[in-house]
């Protein structure tokens, strides 16, 4: 593959043909370029870089946030009351390039709840609270003796499992950066550390240059990059010498000393200084063939691969005139700012400020019980007059000084007006996303306008708006999917109904065709069968009417004779007679109707026949009832049924015979007297 094709297409857009070859020759010769803008604030690094890195005692309690990097937090692997060892995973790797967090030391999980975060707002975040036991007992580690025997994928997985993130401040997962696709030209190790007061990388390069170089070699093996440039500002002579000695005799490694200028340590600015290439506005360094890592990140990769140690601690700068013992310290992740200040001899005063980070890009902590995380690099405790607070914000005088010092060639004044008006579309048009929040514009503003604060608030609002827009789009997609599903189900139902109706029509047509195709000689025999259902219906109606008449006769009051009451035997005989009559009626009702052998009758003939059968049945019931009454009358005329003369008198004057089926007046009167 030629050198021209070695870098990405974005690089070819900037350099093509002879220009590309010339650019590589200039980089190899050590040429440095300049970026626009920049400032020269007081460095104040001598406060903390005079002593070696110290190791503070293990605090009694650590606060380990579940999320300490760019990406999503992972699921918990521990529970309250569980004993954990140093280096034991506390969470699983989260989605979207999420990294696990590990126990910084051994101890017991005291609680898992929300705790103030290392953020300007100190908003509570899910945190594991670990009570340390002071023993610092390690869990089993998985070191890799010879990384050259392992593939890039295996090493990337190992680094991700160790939870290594960029220690330059952004906290981007290192494994994801190393897995960038495409051929890359240069690996740049950022040791510029341009912000005032901060000396963490300076002391690390002085004391652990060999480990940093070994970490660089591991990243070279993973990424396949041959050329490495280590950039250090010229205000760090000891670090420059240490790294130069460590790289001596190492092929492909070179140390570049760059001028001290803020913010030369910014990713895009440093790439432009070393290569003359500019990262596209919406692009990444790998788009122009460059990969950048921090010196602290290189050392963390070395510890993770060679010793199997997860990222459990980092170098923190403790500086400011309010500290009696400023310097640098190996601080376990989750260590509270209060513990660090106590270790450095903090001398507080009323309304004192404590800043996490440097004076340019750091933020004032609203409380001191917040923990340090993977991206923390400095705790600044200034004296009362060391860093005076900003004065009252005044009106912009349109001096243009902010635009002169902007390293991203933006228009800070215009962004300020747009941010105040909440004009998000205008902010996008003026490339607010390219602002690195270095604070150079606010540093030179004569009106003391906190420009960076306006930009941060606008970015937060735009992120919130973007999230809400994404939610709305997702909800719209779900609604449209549901609407389409309901419409599809409706069409399927209609299709099923149409198929069923068609099947019924076809079956009906087949039956009609079969009936039409039957032989003419079978018409006489088939007609009664076809009419049989109607005959059965008529017979059933007739039986129902007969049953109803029998029930009416049964429920009607029995006629009471005027003669003397019957004896017990006579009443039994009368009841037997009534039962026989009822049974005869039921037998007549349940008997099947005779089917005529001749041709079927017409509808009027069937109605007349049914009426005749009903009349015959009614006459039979009346005859049976009359027979029962006659038997009762004969029994009641016996002499022994007349106990006294009053009954005899009544018998001498018999009542006129009643019409069958109707009680006589004398009987009703007798019944009422009884």
Structure description:
There is one protein chain. With 674 residues, the chain is an alpha/beta fold. It folds into three domains: 1-387, Rossmann fold; 390-516, no CATH class; 533-585 and 598-669, no CATH class. The protein has 20 helices and 14 strands. It has helices at 9-14, 18-28, 152-161, 174-178, 200-207, 209-223, 237-247, 267-275, 295-306, 337-343, 401-405, 412-420, 424-429, 440-444, 451-516, 523-555, 568-590, 603-636, 645-652, 665-673, and strands spanning 54-55, 61-65, 83-84, 107-116, 124-132, 186-191, 227-233, 253-258, 290-294, 313-319, 327-332, 355-356, 363-364, 378-380. The strands form three sheets. It has a six-stranded mixed β-sheet, sandwiched between helices. β7 (227-233), α7 (237-247) and β8 (253-258) form a beta-alpha-beta unit. α6 (209-223) crosses α9 (295-306), α12 packs across α15 (451-516) and α17 (568-590) packs antiparallel against α18 (603-636). The protein is elongated, with a radius of gyration of 52 Å. It starts with 8 loop residues before the first helix and ends with a helix. Mean pLDDT is 83; it is low at 1-13, 520-531, 558-564, 593-597 and 634-674.
